[in-house]
Amino acid sequence: MSLVSRRVKEFDIDPSELDAQVALAMGTLTDEQYGTKLAGAVRELIPDTIVEAKVDSVDERTGLVIMDIGGKAEGTLSLSEFGETLPEPGQMVDVHYAGLNDDDTASISKRRADRQRAWEQLQSTHNEGDEVQGICQRKIKGGLLVDVEGVPVFLPASQVSLRRTHDISDFIGEPIRARIIKIDTERMNVVISRRKLLEEERQKQKEVLLKDIQENQVRIGVVKNIADFGVFVDLGGIDGLLHITDMSWGRVSHPSQMVEMGQELEVKVLRVDFERERIALGLKQKQASPWEGIEDRYPSGSKHVGTVVNLMSYGAFVKLEDGVEGLVHISEMSWTRRVNHPSELVKSGDNVEVVVLEIDKDKQEISLGMKQAEANPWDLAEQNYPVGTVIEGAVRNLTSYGAFVEIEEGIDGLLHVSDMSWTKKVSHPSEVVKKGDRLQCVILSVDTQKKRIALGMKQLTPDPWLEEIPGKFHVGDLLTGYVTKITNFGVFVKLEEDLEGLLHISELSDHKIASPEEVVQPGMRIEVRVIRVDIEDRKIGLSFVHSDFEENASLPDPAEAAAKAAARAAEESANDNSKVSAEGGLESSLGAALGAVGAQSSAAKAKADAEAAEAAAATATEEIAETAEAEPASDDAAGEDESTKSDSTEA
């Protein structure tokens, strides 16, 4: 009714005039007769079926097409369902009838009818396993929607290509061939596979290829995959591997430097494994090897300029020409510098001058040297630095045995501790010099074979042991000095700056003593007598006279200190024995009891030893005092006595 009312309004017909026209058209028909005729003219439509409809009118302004389906109601279609061709009034079109809408208009669809007709056609002409052609329409979840003869079918992403495709949207709008792998009649769903069809075709190509392919053949292929170790090339049915080492005679960091995906290559067949169906390909083998005639172009000893292409911890690789590289070992980089890593001298891309040292053609290896391209400074060291030359250099490093002084860049000399001072006993070079100090030294020796230069600092001044010390110190002289160091064999006494004498333990007392600490202490001022001046061994022998100086009052009494030290040592020894005995006695109660008795006995004995040591120390103190009071009036006579005692002691 709504459609009729709309047409009345559209033609602007007066209702009374309309009634008159209807009555004229009806003639003598009664309402009963009209109903009978109308029922015969209107066909009964079954929902969810395809019916034939006639285009009644086309409204381009609203984009609607009014369709007469021959029923009680009319339906409308969108112009978009007709595609690019506009329908004409009176044209017959198949539509899908779904039933009546709430406003009593028919719900129809041309697109659905077309799809159903296409589905019926596809179902009647194709089965699972058949090959079909279609055009990829759009990307959907899990794959692509492909139009096959008007039916949208599903192409899973995993079935698009032989290899996993990163972006399947590249196939949209492209025609493809595929094979039907599933037909679901109930759901009107079809699944196809392009991969299955490609695999079948590839298998046929592979069988043909394996019959014809031979080693040393040159074939054309397409790059299908690029990996770090090489390139896979599709030869038509089977992929061959072009390893990175067979791509160029030169250095290739990554295959992508030479090829790209989809590129067509002409390659040489190197090896064919028919059982495993593997083919090794080569690109560089199409050209002659640069190692042919290598000895003629690079004879041993010849000098060349190359480019640093790679650095390793053990050396640098230098490119002499495309496909020819040599190794400059880290030991062949400098005559003088200690090179820890090649990057200290060169970097990638540097042009360097090298000398060919050795060639191994079979292994395709060349040993090169950088230092051989320059003069060896050690060959001229003996000429440039003769013995006795005074040089000036900076202290580059200190060791326990001396200091290394840089004479020139790359050449160091060793200043040994024994050559730092004529008189001072140097235990470590840091007592005299420090790193970075600039020193003057004398060349003592040059060893070009071992690449060593010995330096001396004390040799810059005259040796005081030749004239100065013998002329200044005589046997019998009484001197005062300070105890600097105490050892188990005696005492070192500082006589003047950088000069010490040795006071042997036998010269500390008239009787035998166990330790020098019984008589003297470090820092104590004492008076000594010179008993020997040894020029060859550079030593001054001393004998103890006395230590009665006021400045020694603040120091502990030597005898008491020695006694306490002895008592402390005895007590520690007793404690150690007690601990050892107690641990050993854990095995049985009897053993523990015996250990305890032993410990007590040791402690008692240690205590007795300590008391005896104190008594001995007291006696020594009295004897020292008596000796000091009875000092001889004549220094010469005393010197003779001391000299005689020294001689007898050494004898």
Set out the fold topology.
Layout: H1 2-11, H2 15-26, H3 31-41, E1 49-59, E2 64-68, E3 74-78, E4 92-100, E5 106-109, H4 110-125, E6 131-140, E7 143-148, E8 151-156, E9 175-184, E10 189-193, H5 194-212, E11 218-226, E12 230-234, E13 239-243, E14 264-273, E15 278-282, H6 294-297, E16 303-312, E17 315-321, E18 324-329, E19 351-360, E20 365-369, H7 381-384, E21 390-398, E22 402-408, E23 411-416, E24 438-447, E25 452-456, H8 468-472, E26 478-486, E27 490-496, E28 499-504, E29 525-534, E30 539-546, H9 558-584, H10 589-629, H11 635-650
Parallel strand pairs: 13-15, 18-20, 23-25, 28-30
Antiparallel strand pairs: 1-2, 1-4, 2-3, 4-5, 6-7, 6-9, 7-8, 9-10, 11-12, 11-14, 12-13, 14-15, 16-17, 16-19, 17-18, 19-20, 21-22, 21-24, 22-23, 24-25, 26-27, 26-29, 27-28, 29-30
Helix pairs in contact: 9-10
Let me know the CATH homologous superfamily of the largest domain: Nucleic acid-binding proteins
Q: What share of residues are in beta strands?
A: 25-35%
Tell me the CATH architecture of the largest domain.
Beta Barrel
In which order are the strands of the major sheet placed?
3-2-1-4-5
Q: Helical stretch count? A: 11
Domain unit count: 6
Structural class: alpha+beta
CATH class of the largest domain: Mainly Beta
The largest sheet, given as strand count, sense and whether it forms a barrel, is: 5 strands, antiparallel
Keywords: Repeat, Ribonucleoprotein, Ribosomal protein, RNA-binding
Pfam family, one: S1
Protein name: Small ribosomal subunit protein bS1
Region (Disordered): 560-583, 601-651
